Amino acid sequence: MKTITSANAPAAIGPYSQAKAFGNLIFTSGQIPLNPANGQVVEGGIREQTLQTIKNLEAVLKEAGVGFEQVLKTTCFLHDMADFATFNEVYEQFFLSKPARSCVAVKALPKGVLVEIEAIAVSA
């Protein structure tokens, strides 16, 4: 098992790694819309927060040697399901291969953010 750490994604804010690789599978921890440079939540609404979350996820995947096209499944957490349509508008620009996905609304997310995304990917 290998630990994946990207300097281009926010450092973990708890006792976990950004991702783990086991064989050719990569399991990312949930990424939230933190600016990697300062660890602060990005300003803006669901659109801006989703974009930053995806950029952070991309950095972790890249460190593992994969991209969005190798993502098998994502799990997406929204603070408010009213944001679902806007979230999807941003999400679909990056996940062109349409991986399997679960998307649920939750009562609260770390640091009061609006979105969190985790992924499972496969390397060649």
List the topology elements:
Elements (H helix, E strand, L loop, with lengths): L1 E3 L14 E4 L2 E4 L17 H18 L7 E8 L5 H8 L8 E6 L9 E8 L2
Parallel strand pairs: 4-5
Antiparallel strand pairs: 1-2, 2-3, 3-6, 4-6
Helix pairs in contact: 1-2
GO molecular function, one term: deaminase activity
InterPro entries: RidA (IPR006056), RidA_CS (IPR019897), RutC-like_sf (IPR035959), YjgF/YER057c/UK114 (IPR006175)
Protein name: 2-iminobutanoate/2-iminopropanoate deaminase
Primary descriptors:
6-stranded mixed beta sheet; alpha+beta; globular; 2 helices; 124 residues
Report what the structure shows.
- A hairpin with a 2-residue loop joins strand 2 and strand 3.
- This protein is 21% helix and 27% strand.
- The protein has a 6-stranded mixed beta sheet with strand order 1-2-3-6-4-5, covered by helices on one side.
- The protein is of the alpha+beta class and 124 residues long.
- It has 2 helices and 6 strands.
- The mean pLDDT is 97.
- The relative contact order is 0.25.
- It has helices at 46-63, 84-91; strands at 2-4, 19-22, 25-28, 71-78, 100-105, 115-122.
- Helix 1 (46-63) packs parallel to helix 2.
